[in-house]
Write a structure and sequence with these properties.
By secondary structure, the chain is of the alpha/beta class. It contains 16 helices and 14 strands. It has a seven-stranded antiparallel sheet. Helix 15 (374-385) links the parallel strand 11 and strand 12. The chain is elongated, with a radius of gyration of 24 Å.
């Protein structure tokens, strides 16, 4: 075995909160068997002011060769640097060990997902054929302060010069999810080679992990070129999709607003994380995303095997077609594809196909309806479909003053028919609960302002039926 090391340190107040985000308890050593070897996660230090998590990857070089993950000459298969330096092998370990954190999932403390923390990352041995300057070009634009030290080939033979290996330290104020996605994508880019075949799924993986930050990165072309192992067709597809993301208008001004309290993570991602956390808390297994749009929530639901049946319903056929493409429906594994159904349907007309589920989610839907259509929505969802739980999210109009580009009284999206204050939303939800025999509670989504409240508000309606858990 040969060891590869990476550490991530938080120096925030209540630094051990990072354990919630990583889903790894500081008091335990956890071991994971991987295709490339064995990973262990442990905490060398865990105090209220400083908490470090260590990912130690024990690579099995012989196992790699037996698995035929390397080509080339026989000697090259056994004599190479991969078991000893950070590379795509370490990225695989990050994805396997910290998968929930990479997706922005934190069921126990969802409010932590969007919180920027003072973080330090140390990779003692990183293969970088572009030298320390490339490390700075890739990580610097993402908010990191980069410190590097180049390893010499042999201290006893100075004429041999420097090696391709760099000791890298990163520091910055970022969310843990952003920090992990940066490492997950850029470690293979710096290495310049992957230990497995690149295929169509790698394009989707790149866009899924780096979509929020890669379109604006000054080295975007270089990143896609090297991440996709210089496969021309895949590189072209990735760049076309990134340009489409760059050109697409933001659904919410808070996603691109340069306001004084803008957060690193787009608000839409915080909403998705909050909804998934609530569904998990309620023990939901069969869920309808009504008004699913292009599938942002569907992707997260399918990524969690706890959700055994996922239905995406939308009145727009083009939106469903885009959802199918973005989810990679034609390339999806059969086991995952069997859990997903896409339906063209309206929330204001009865549809028997939507009845009998554990939960219905209306994420940023109600504000797109004319107010006189809300009673029809209520009858369809709460009266006819009658799931055990209904989750409704909608903008908090009081928070709009935070967005400087909005005129006084303006709305966050041109298609919004209205936007409620907290009092208005609570009054509507309370009346619905009374009319249809549900209990309702409220929770904030996004960073709260002491006077204005959160940017998004959520109502969680529950009955005592199956799939809702104990809502006391």
């Amino acid at each position: 075995m040969a060891d590869v090391l990476l550490t991530l340190t938080s120096t925030a107040e209540d630094a051990t909160d990072v354990g919630f985000l990583l889903h790894k308890h500081p008091d335990r050593v956890q071991r994971f068997d991987l295709s490339v070897g064995t990973a262990q996660v442990f905490y060398p230090e865990a105090s209220p002011t400083r908490c470090t998590v260590c990912l130690l990857l024990e690579v099995d070089p012989v196992g790699l060769v037996r698995g035929r993950r390397f080509g080339g000459e026989v000697l090259a298969q056994y004599v190479n640097d991969r078991p000893y330096a950070a590379s795509s092998l370490l990225a695989v370990a990050l994805g396997r060990v910290f998968g929930s954190a990479l997706r922005g999932r934190c069921d126990d403390r969802p409010e932590l997902v969007s919180r920027r923390l003072p973080l330090e990352v140390h990779v003692p041995a990183l293969r970088c054929d572009g030298g320390p300057g490339l490390v700075e070009r890739l990580f610097g634009p993402l908010g990191w302060t980069v410190t590097t030290a180049v390893e010499v080939l042999d201290p006893t033979v100075p004429d041999w010069g420097d090696s391709d290996y760099v000791d890298v330290r990163l520091s910055g104020s970022l969310t843990v999810q952003d920090a992990l996605t940066h490492l997950y994508v850029l470690l293979p880019v710096l290495d310049g080679s992957k230990h497995y075949w690149v295929n169509q799924q790698e394009v989707d993986k790149l866009l899924r992990a780096a979509g929020p930050w890669l379109p604006a990165h000054p080295e975007r072309e270089l990143i896609t070129h090297r991440y996709l192992a210089r496969q021309r067709d895949y590189v072209s597809e990735a760049n076309d999709r990134l340009r489409a993301l760059e050109a697409a208008p933001a659904d919410d001004p808070e996603d691109s607003a340069a306001d004084a309290e803008s957060v690193a993570e787009p608000l839409r991602r915080q909403r998705t994380s909050a909804v998934v956390a609530e569904l998990k808390r309620l023990g939901v297994r069969r869920v309808v995303d009504l008004g699913c749009g292009e599938g942002a929530l569907l992707r997260e639901l399918l990524a969690d095997s706890a959700f055994t049946e996922v239905v995406g319903a939308d009145v727009s056929a083009p939106a469903l077609q885009r959802a199918a493409r973005r989810l990679g429906l034609d390339r999806m594994p059969d086991s995952q594809r069997a859990r997903l159904t896409l339906l063209q349907s309206s929330g204001t007309y009865r549809d028997a196909r939507l009845e009998g589920y554990d939960a219905v989610v209306l994420m940023e839907v109600v504000e797109h309806l004319d107010p006189d259509r809300l009673p029809s929505l209520q009858r369809t969802v709460f009266g006819r479909a009658r799931p055990g739980a209904v989750l409704v999210t909608t903008p908090n109009a009081e928070f709009n003053v935070k967005y400087e580009q909005l005129a006084a009284g303006g709305r966050r999206h041109p298609d919004h028919r209205f936007e409620w204050s907290r009092a208005e939303f609570r009054a509507w939800a309370a009346q619905v609960a009374t009319d249809d025999g549900y209990a309702v509670r409220f929770r904030p989504v996004g960073e709260e302002d002491s006077q204005l409240g959160p940017p998004t508000q959520m109502a969680v309606f529950t009955t005592n039926g199956p799939g809702t858990g104990d809502d006391s």
